[in-house]
Amino acid sequence: MATKHSRSAARLMMAPAVILLLGWMLVPLIMTLMFSFKKYLPLRGGDLGWVGFENYVRFVSSSAFWPSVGATLTIVGGVLLITIFFGVLLAILLNQPMWGQGVVRILVIAPFFVMPTVSALVWKNMFMDPVNGLFAHLWRFFGAEPISWLSQASLPSIVMIVSWQWLPFATLILLTAIQSLDGEQLEAAEMDGAPPLKRFGYITLPHLSRAITIVLLIQTIFLLAIFAEIFVTTGGAFGTRTLTYLIFQRVLESQNVGLGSAGGVYAIILANIVAIFLMRIVGKNLDA
Amino acid sequence: MGQIKLNQVTKSFGDVQVIPPLDLTIEDGEFTVFVGPSGCGKSTLLRLIAGLEDITSGHIEIDGADATYVPPAKRGLAMVFQSYALYPHMSVRKNIAFPMKMAGIDEAEQNRRIEGAAKALNLTDYLDRKPGQLSGGQRQRVAIGRSIVREPAAFLFDEPLSNLDAALRVGMRLEISELHERLKTTMIYVTHDQVEAMTMADKIVVLRAGFIEQVGSPLELYHKPRNEFVAGFIGSPKMNLIKGAEAEKHDAATIGIRPEHTAVSKTEGMWKGVVGVAEHLGSDTFIHVHDTGLADMVTVRITGDIQAKHGDTIYLTPQLDQLHKFDAQGLRVD
Questions:
Q1: B245 and B197 in a common domain
Q2: Where does chain A have alpha helices with state H?
Q3: Which residues of A fall within a CB distance of 8 Å from B73?
């Protein structure tokens, strides 16, 4: 593909895909940007003209903004911590030869196949219901007062639900990484006098660092946008209103498209800040 | 110090016994080579000595103390793996320092030993590189360096040269032999290559299917193979083993004659045959002779060159004093 002719032919043939992809991304992005500079209230007069940066100022100065950023980061951070910690543990466990390994592996991966709405409803009604939930029964069995999870410990509850969904993903990626670890390296470390914990720290964990980086980046991107779990459990109440949820409320509940679009632009900026931040910390693991 | 004694050691994986009861003593300072075809249990035996596999029954003694249930790190042995097993995320220096760090040796002493090992192994310029940036031979030397600094009672080598190209292999073979001369430490070396075994060993242990076929010095094995298997395995090109009428003339079930103990003539001799392939190496010529009526193919080795082409008729005369005789069980008859 070195000649000038073949290069231009290649460009021509790639063009439809590139144009489609660009349009797919750029049109919504530009419309969001456009609406964010307009006062646009579909049920109260429709398009009321350009307003400059008013929507941006109002979105940030709203008392709900900073708590929503906080809630978003808490959920993302909490889920990342839990999934990576237990993901590494589960990966090590599943890598051990044991009876029924195939079945156990499938069971571990199963939560990933459950739709977010369904899993959140299952958790809400079967586990966390303060009257009939399994947790409530468990608490009463030990003579304790049942917790109404989603109102008293709303953020931890949501972190728990989302972690349950994402743990399989982390486990799967980390398991494949751990399987590629050269057994002779571990044996060499054993001969060199490293006890199991040090073998983990000096050999296994460095080997997993790249996989952990990938889990971290991919999960962050998806977790910043979680919505269904909050929608069907708390509906954004009890401090679980994330940035995504706040935007949803501004657009659909307050019917203010302009304000919501400004929020959407903030969300893009936040996601990019987090991504750059993460790339800086862990991106170097992806080289070499 | 590094005397290793195996006493009635066995190893089974499930129902399969890969090492039947086995006794072996490796003396202090000896260079012992375990050699055998692949799957003969030589690597398993090494791993049993290292402690990486648990033995099923029997005892292992290191320096007179029972080490059967001692964990690998406490046995005072160092191992060099086939894949080198360097830690990829650590620099050469940290790789070599790792066993000392685990043993809690102070930093100054660590550095002294690293410098010493690096100098001995020509690694001084590479100490700050990662294993990924080194060539195969250099990686091999790092792996050896990592085992030297522990000052072990014995070194265990698990086919360390099989990942290197031929030229490098010869070079590393010499380096390991020289290392043994310098350190005078016990070394156990596993290989499937009988040339490595012959050139490096003080003592060769020939294994087949977990059984020790013969133990002895390289020349003992060459001159007095205990059975047909050892006779065929040691020496290159292989010994010619001849059965049938020709063997019966010498009161044996099988007779063996090494390629280098056969004279060749174009006019007269004991056995007549047709030249198949002649391999001219310059210093030697290997001639593969067919249609002798003795065996499928008889190989002869002569010093220097001879004009022998495919299809030529040729006469072979074995040196009768170099004839090996084996009985129906394959055991040597003197």
A1: no
A2: 4-36, 54-61, 65-95, 101-109, 116-122, 134-141, 149-152, 154-179, 183-191, 196-199, 205-223, 228-233, 243-248, 257-282
A3: 190-195
